[in-house]
Design brief:
NAD(P)-bd_dom_sf; about 300 residues; 2 domains; alpha/beta; 13 strands; Rossmann fold; UDP-galactose 4-epimerase, domain 1
Length: about 300
């Protein structure tokens, strides 16, 4: 197959491109940046685009599958009630890409959505059939994106699938999430300090399981539609810190928190992904962190590994 990945130079895109090439697919990575190149990926066709409709229509000629990862995530400086920063990167761009995909007769379109489509108004575990109200403006932009993708799919132009992804982690991810901060601190042999409430839980998913979900979604027998992609449980801060300390040698865990009971632990039900895509988690937290450690060791020098 010929597969186009938008956002191919991003965290998930780098791993996904490698996996797709490993199965003999032709992979085209596209993005706004001139530096679309992926480390060690000389066999990846890389294309710089302005995401204009004419360029996308030309770019998608003879493409079988489009996997749309590009978009804007929430930032600390965002206004809590404004969707404006997300309109162009998460909605208008998506609409142009769907239009171009239909014109180019792309067979399958897969959209990366988010667990942030859900909020505290939803019962745990989150179900695809839930009425969603969006955790924040980013979540709302993804809900609207899911609607666009579904609309184009129902029009008969192409097969469409949206994947609501849990918080991803792995080597190379940004350090804004607590698990990635723990990993970064452990790699520098700094103590892992648990603050707030050790019982608070997060639905965390290893990047290789996320990649597996996208691979399953484009398989010939995969169903179309909307699917939750998560670990099927919430990992508590305490669990995460102890698991990271177990994966990285000589790391201390300190608890400076108020361990109140009844802490939030939202997560998604993934039954639909199991039955509809044949996908299930293969990298539970401990196994995934051991792989992160091995990847980190392979990517760093012995001197760097031994220093704080």
């Amino acid at each position: 197959m010929k597969v186009v990945i938008t956002g191919a130079s991003g965290f998930i895109g780098r791993y996904l491109a490698t996996a797709l090439r490993g199965q003999g697919n032709t992979v085209v990575g596209v993005g706004r940046s001139e530096a679309v190149a992926l480390s060690g990926s000389t066999d990846l066709l890389q294309v710089h685009t302005d995401y204009s409709l004419p360029h996308l229509e030309s770019l998608l000629a003879q493409v079988d599958v489009v996997i749309h990862l590009a978009g804007r995530r929430s930032q600390r400086s965002d206004h809590l009630l404004s969707i404006t920063p997300f309109v162009e990167p998460n909605l208008s761009l998506l609409e142009r890409l769907l239009d171009a995909s239909a014109s180019a007769r792309v067979k399958k379109f897969v959209f990366a959505s988010t667990i942030a489509a859900y909020s505290q108004a939803n019962a745990v575990p989150y179900q695809e059939s839930d009425k969603v109200s969006g955790l924040n403006p980013y979540g709302w932009s993804k809900i609207a994106g899911e609607g666009l993708v579904d609309l184009w799919g129902r029009s008969g132009h192409m097969q469409t699938t949206s994947l609501r992804l849990a918080a991803g982690f792995g080597y190379g991810e940004r350090l804004s999430a607590v698990l990635m901060r723990f990993i970064d601190q452990a790699s520098r042999k700094e103590p892992l300090i648990v603050r707030g409430n050790r019982h608070v839980g997060v639905d965390q998913l290893y990047v290789k399981d996320i990649v597996g979900a996208f691979m399953a979604a484009i398989a010939p027998n995969a169903r179309n539609g909307l699917f939750n992609i998560g670990s099927g449980r919430a990992y508590r801060l305490e669990e995460m810190a102890l698991a990271v300390a177990n994966a990285f040698p000589d790391v201390e865990v300190r608890f400076e928190d108020d361990p109140a009971v009844g802490a939030a632990g939202p997560y998604m039900d993934t039954t639909a992904a199991s039955t509809g895509l044949g996908w299930c988690i293969e990298w539970p937290l401990e196994k995934a962190l051991a792989d992160v450690y091995d990847t980190w060791c392979a990517a760093t020098t012995p001197i760097k590994r031994g220093s704080k």
